[in-house]
Design a protein that fits this description.
Elements lengths: L1 H10 L4 H12 L26 E11 L2 E11 L4 E15 L5 E22 L2 E6 L4 E8 L3 E4 L7 E5 L1
Antiparallel strand pairs: 1-2, 1-8, 2-3, 3-4, 4-5, 5-6, 6-7, 7-8
């Protein structure tokens, strides 16, 4: 009963702390420490920078005219090379008439439950992520005490913060 009430409350809430609790509950297996097994084989080399193991979040922002899109990505990197991730987005747009007078506002929220899974590894200063559907991302990376940066050749770097 308490679980059902918590689910209903969190589904209707945009409170980050409650969303994070539900996300963690979906991500971790019965032992409470690791994501469920992935069906993807280990990434070649299978070395892992232990500093990257843990829970991470990054946020992307896109603004254009009277519209904005904010997407929050969450990823859990397990020390054994497995990962799981989820994301949630918020879109907002204002509307004006032909004279430029404000006429309305629209907000849309979406949430993808934790479900994208796969394997991760690091080698030669690069982080490699392979999803279960065999999509692969390979980035040079930098790591600090509470962040890591995936460096993109297209100036679309990803700054992840520890949560």
């Amino acid at each position: 009963m308490a679980r059902r009430l918590l689910d209903k409350f969190c589904a209707a809430s945009y409170n980050d702390d409650l969303d994070y609790l539900i996300w963690v509950e979906q991500v971790f297996s019965a032992d409470g420490r690791h994501p469920p097994p992935s069906s993807v084989p280990p990434v070649p080399g299978s070395e892992r920078d232990k500093r990257l193991a843990g829970n991470w979040r990054r946020t992307s922002y896109t603004f254009s005219g009277g519209s904005s899109l904010v997407t929050c990505y969450e990823r859990s990197l397990s020390p054994d090379g497995r990962f799981v991730e989820s994301k949630r987005s918020s879109f907002s747009s204002t509307f004006t008439d032909s004279l430029g007078n404000w006429t309305g506002l629209s907000d849309i929220y979406s949430r993808t439950p934790a479900g994208s899974r796969g394997r991760w590894a690091t080698f030669s200063g690069r982080a490699v992520i392979r999803w279960d559907d065999n999509l692969i991302a390979d980035y040079p990376y930098e790591v600090g005490p509470d962040y890591f940066l995936l460096v993109s050749h297209s100036d679309n770097n990803q700054l992840w913060k520890r949560i």
